[in-house]
Write a structure and sequence with these properties.
alpha+beta, 2 domains, three-stranded antiparallel β-sheet, three-stranded mixed β-sheet
């Protein structure tokens, strides 16, 4: 599917995955570079000028944000940038939402198995405690 045809992910989904901020960050879903020009930024000498030059040459691949930092987070082990025009994270949102019944059933089954394992472990711990107490 073409990047331009993907709708943006919902704010709720972005709020769930976006939790960091940086001066410059690459969206690992599309390899676009996002940057800000914050006076407190610690760019290396010439780095910010280079970003501005690259932005002028290719504004779709090197994107300036008029904010104090670029918001981002991880999704599927990749850096996802808030409001990146690739909208690739919307594929995950669609998958999660369209599969919510399956995912819910999986979570319930997994939680039951974990709870049963915890009960068994607790019972074993109780037996060990009883054995230690009775040997005193």
């Amino acid at each position: 599917m073409d990047d331009k045809k993907l709708s943006p992910p919902s704010e709720e989904f972005l709020d769930a995955i976006i939790y960091r901020g940086s001066n410059v960050i690459e969206c690992e879903f599309c390899e676009r570079v996002h940057f800000v020009d914050d006076p407190t930024s610690d760019y290396e000498k010439g780095e910010l000028d280079d970003l501005y030059n690259r932005n002028k040459e290719n504004p779709d691949k090197v994107i300036f944000h008029d904010t104090s930092s670029v918001s981002w987070g991880y999704l599927d082990g990749k850096q996802a940038v808030y409001n990146c025009p690739c909208n690739q994270v919307s594929k995950y949102e669609q998958l999660f939402w369209n599969s919510r019944d399956i995912i819910s059933e999986y979570f319930q089954t997994k939680a039951r198995a974990i709870r049963e394992f915890a009960k068994e472990t607790s019972n074993l711990a109780d037996k060990v405690t009883e054995a230690v107490e009775s040997s005193k």
